């Protein structure tokens, strides 16, 4: 199974939130563990950093199951700071995914990673700055940004799927080149 | 990647600073604003200011040991007091919650007799005392209300005279409201009155006022007609209207500034 395929599986675990009561049949932490495994399989500059970030996110995800109020919007200062760090770590680990992907598929340039990371950064910033805005304006901008982020998230999966196919083709080409040699 | 790490660090610092600033604005305890026991309409109305994020949740209001809860189940056969518990206004840092308790049974009014304040209980165990005014229904045999309108652009009332009386003066008992128009049988009358006016049966009276900021849902203001009735007795006829404008963000912020340390 190639890097992109494992990342897609991991991301899908985070995408689907199907709950039976409080039990999530696709727990996020399993997705993160799969992503840690994906990073451990490749030799790339930021694979190790990505694996560390995904490991921390897996641990916070498990803590989130035990202490769900940690990820519910709250006024508890400690939980808010944990949520901020968690958000920033998520951006860092996505950047590592993009970076490793770029290294695997050299020459496959795309504007999407930069756009997606910029949007996530803006969203992170606005979520905490916007609370000082008028409530109506904050809620409208937050809703619009959420819709935009959802579209980007869907495209992110499509983006990974395309890259998975390219990685497959690349592996096959490398395989046939080795057998010819 | 180094640039991204730097950006993430800056974003994180801004986020934490913003959160800490918001935290300094939070109220530890809700601020009671005002309230009324409206015996005429069998309602208890009041309001309090709380945080917009994580507001203090209302549990009950207590008068002389008698609690009124919002969760009382509705029964078709045994009407229970009902409470509407809505956010009255919501601004950046603070919200005003204005519960209205509808009483169906006259027995529910008994514990409220002579009450001037109530104790609001919140779900987190905090209690606060709120001063309450009272309004009781007053029969006005001299006037019959034909129509009235209320809105944020002002209020108006149209009345028919049923019994003759002499009007000495018209006043609004609220500094948030001004009298705009006073008409008798369609003709404008200047206020304050310079001389008493005689009203006869079938005369029509029209009063128009500006609106004012209501400190809780369905707050009333009073208009007083100082009259001399048919038996030559001095009387005050009290007419009421609703205030319809919601308090501004500045008003709420000033209230927090003044009383936030309660």
Order of helices and strands of chain A: HEEHHHHH
Q: What is the average of the pLDDT values of chain A?
A: 87
Task: Tell me the number of strands of chain B.
Answer: 18
The greatest interface between two protein chains, and residues involved on each side, is: A-B, 27 and 24 residues
- For the report, how would you describe the main beta sheet of chain B? 5 strands, mixed
The main sheet of chain A orders its strands as 1-2
Q: CATH top level of the largest domain in chain B?
A: Mainly Beta
Oligomeric state as shown: heterodimer
Amount of beta strand of chain A: under 5%
Helical content of chain B stands at 10-25%
Order of helices and strands of chain B: HEEEEEEEEEEEEEEEEEEH
Principal-axes geometry of chain A comes out as globular
Number of strand elements of chain A: 2
Shape of chain B: elongated
The strand order across the widest sheet of chain B is: 5-6-2-1-9
End-to-end CA span of chain B:
50 Å
Instruction: Give me the CATH architecture of the largest domain in chain B, please.
Output: Sandwich
Question: Can you tell me about this structure?
Answer:
The complex is a heterodimer of chains A (181) and B (262). Chain A is 77% helix and 2% strand. By secondary structure, chain A is mainly alpha-helical. Chain A has one domain (3-180). In chain A, strands 1-2 form a two-stranded antiparallel ribbon. In chain A, a hairpin with a 2-residue loop joins strand 1 (19-20) and strand 2 (23-24). In chain A, helix 1 runs antiparallel to helix 6 and helix 3 runs antiparallel to helix 4 (77-104). The longest helix of chain A has 46 residues, at 135-180. The mean pLDDT of chain A is 87. Chain B has 262 residues and is mainly β. Chain B has a 5-stranded mixed sheet. Chain B is elongated, with a radius of gyration of 24 Å. Classes of the chains: A mainly alpha (181), B mainly beta (262). Chain A: The chain crosses the membrane at residues 6-39, 46-66, 78-100, 112-134, 140-161.
